[in-house]
Amino acid sequence: MAFELPPLPYSFGSLEPHIDALTMEIHHDRHHNAYITNLNNAIAGTDLEGKSLDEILSNIDDYSAAVRNNGGGHYNHSLFWTVMSPNGGGQPEGDLAQAINARFGSFDSFKNEFSTAATTRFGSGWAWLCKKGGGEVDVCSSPNQDNPVMPGIGCGGTPILGLDVWEHAYYLKYQNKRPDYIAAFWNVINWEEVARRYAE
Ligand code: MN
C-alpha cells in the first residue's frame, strides 16, 4: 500500500493573514506531494513496502538518503498541517500546559525557546516540541527533513508540535523575514491537536 497525500483539514486561505493561500497550496499540493511520490518510488519493490512510516523512521540509518529525506518530509508535513487551524492560537490547557510549565517555567518562556530554536536553525529544517519518557516535554530543531523520531536527532521522543522553517514555507509572504513568520505561527497553532498528541 503506497503512501498517500492526506487532505488539508481546512482551506488554503483559511490561515490568512498569518500564512497565505498560495503558500499553503504550493506547500501541500506540490512540496508534500513530491515527498510522497519520491518516497513511494524509493521503497517500491523493497521490503519497506507495507511498513509504517514510524517503523521506517525509527530505523532510518539502515536506509537510503532518498528514504530519509522523503520519509521525513512526509511525516513532518503530515504533522504540520494538523497542528495548525483557522481557530488556532492562544495557549494549551490541562496536562500539556502543566508539562510546559514544569519544563520551561511559563508559556512565554517556552514560546521564547521554541522561537529561538526555529530562528537559529541554519538553512532548512524544523523546530519541535517533543514528548519524552515520563511525560516530559522538550524543544529542539533538526536539519532538512530529519525529525526526532529518527535515532540521534534533536531531543528524541515524539514530536507533538512542529514548525517548518524551510524557505518554501514562508518566502512568498515573508521573504527573508523568518522571525516574522515564526511570530505569526503562534496565531494558528491548534493546541487541541497538540494536547491530543501529548495525551497519546
Ligand atoms: Mn515544507
List the helices and strands and how they pair.
Elements: H1 21-43, H2 53-58, H3 65-82, H4 94-104, H5 107-120, E1 125-131, E2 137-143, E3 158-164, H6 171-174, H7 178-185, H8 191-199
Antiparallel strand pairs: 1-2, 1-3
Helix pairs in contact: 1-3, 4-5
Bound molecules: manganese (II) ion.
Manganese (II) ion binds at residues 27, 31, 77, 164, 166, 168-169.
How does this model look, in words?
- This protein folds into two domains: 20-82, Fe,Mn superoxide dismutase (SOD) domain (Helix Hairpins), CATH 1.10.287; 94-199, Iron/manganese superoxide dismutase, C-terminal domain (minor pseudopilin epsh fold), CATH 3.55.40.20.
- It is 46% helix and 10% strand.
- It has helices at 21-43, 53-58, 65-82, 94-104, 107-120, 171-174, 178-185, 191-199, and strands spanning 125-131, 137-143, 158-164.
- Strands 2-1-3 form a three-stranded antiparallel sheet.
- The radius of gyration is 16 Å and the shape is globular.
- Manganese (II) ion (MN) binds next to helix 1.
- Residues 27, 31, 77, 164, 166, 168-169 line the site of manganese (II) ion (MN).
